[in-house]
Every structure is written in C-alpha cells, then in structure tokens.
UniProtKB/TrEMBL annotation:
Keywords: Membrane, Transmembrane, Transmembrane helix. The chain crosses the membrane at residues 21-40, 46-68, 75-92. This is DUF3649 domain-containing protein. It comes from Leeuwenhoekiella polynyae.
Length: 100
C-alpha cells in the first residue's frame, strides 16, 4: 500500500526543521526542565533520576515535533520553553548559601 501523497508534500526545510527540532530542541527542553527542577529541589536526586527520565521526555518531545504541521512553530515553542525555564533557573533562590 503506497503512502498517502498529502503526507509527502513537505519541503526539505520543513523536514530538516522537524528533525532538528525533535532531536536538539527536545533535548534542550528536557535538560532545562531537569535543571529547573534541580534548582528548586534536591540536586542529587534530580540528577540521578534524570538519567532515565530525560530520555523518556526527550523521546516524547521528539515525537511531538513530527506531529506538528510547521517546523518553525515547533522550534519557537521549544525555544520559548527553554527561555522560560532558564529564567526560572536564574531566579531560583540558593539552596545552600555560601559561608561568610
């Protein structure tokens, strides 16, 4: 059974955008999510847990990138999420203040 032609009409740039958004953008979002959680909770527990959960979140974001119709919207959403999480990391209060 041949593929439906309406799914094969994407330009090369759209395919490239979806692939890079899924692989790189999904990884950056998953990583900044774990760093943001680590900024507000126990660092060690989150970093140990991230070895497994980071891959699961990355795989889900990779699939979500291919479900969208426009790759640039996916990139915009992933970059926006990364910026938001980076701001949360920056604004996080220090958990262990430095000794005076």
């Amino acid at each position: 059974m041949p593929a439906n032609s309406k799914y094969l009409t994407q330009s090369r740039w759209q395919r490239f955008g979806k692939i890079t958004a899924g692989i790189l953008g999904g990884y950056f979002v998953a990583q900044t999510l774990h760093l943001a959680v680590a900024a507000y909770t126990s660092h060690i527990v989150v970093l140990i847990t991230s070895t497994f959960s980071l891959f699961i979140i990355w795989a889900a974001l990779l699939i979500c990138a291919f479900l969208a119709k426009n790759a640039w919207k996916v990139w915009g959403i992933y970059i926006g999420i990364c910026i938001l999480l980076s701001v949360l990391i920056y604004l996080a209060p220090p958990l262990h203040p430095l000794p005076a």
